[in-house]
Amino acid sequence: MMTTRLPLRTRFKLIAAAVLFTTAGATQAQADRAGAVSLQIAPQPLDKALNALALQSGTRIVFPTALTENRATSGVSGTLGVEQALQKLLAGTGLDAQPTAEGGYTIVQGRTQVLPQVTVTAGTERSVLTEGTGSLTTAGPVTAATGMNLKLRETPQSVSVITRQRMDDQQLNSVADVLEQSPGMHVVKMGPKVGGYNQSITARGYAVGAYTVDGVTTPSQAWANSGLPGIFSMDTAIYDSVAIVRGATGLLTGSGDPSASINLTQTADR
User: Fold this and answer.
1) C-beta atoms surrounding 253 within 10 Å
2) Which domains does the chain carry?
3) Looking at the whole model, is its pTM more than 0.70?
């Protein structure tokens, strides 16, 4: 069998022609993609919109059904290039259009997932102070139980709040007087009224031994060792409110028992 070898110059010419043909084909594909067409695609599911674009532009658009499922588009209208129209249809879907060598497009998952827009609105800062409101109860936040500004119904513990207005109306002049008006608290006063060294305060069968002032925890034993009147004899004039958290107090006070913790909030001018 005889094999005919073409001259070297002829072979170079054939290779150059092949390169020119391939380049011309790619250039034509790019021109076809860039050509503007008149489009009218209404808002609809994404798969139907892509099919409409392919039909109106005469461009082949390939996509997996699972990729466009449960996705919608706002549509597109006007005289646009196919690539520009695809960008509008795919906006916000997390999908991309990749051009093919034949002049069409393949829809693929984008590199970055576009998350839906989240709008956060916030009101004014919640104030825990009750002075000047004239309220006998508190509709505002209470920090006594968790340290966070939560309303009573948002607080997962049993909490009672005695406001400044109630202390004024009922002449609750000492912490012991306040606790006498608080549900679940048992107050026993013994000895002379002046000083009030012998007051017994219990809750749920246990002596109350922890309290906080503006969120700062101090054990009542510190007052007993100071030689000053006990915490329960303190004058309430400087306090805006008194909150009683009944139950285990170890969550925020560091130590405690199943009785209660007394939480004193000072007035704004302190």
Assistant:
1) 18
2) 12-109 (3.55.50.30), 152-266 (2.170.130.10)
3) no
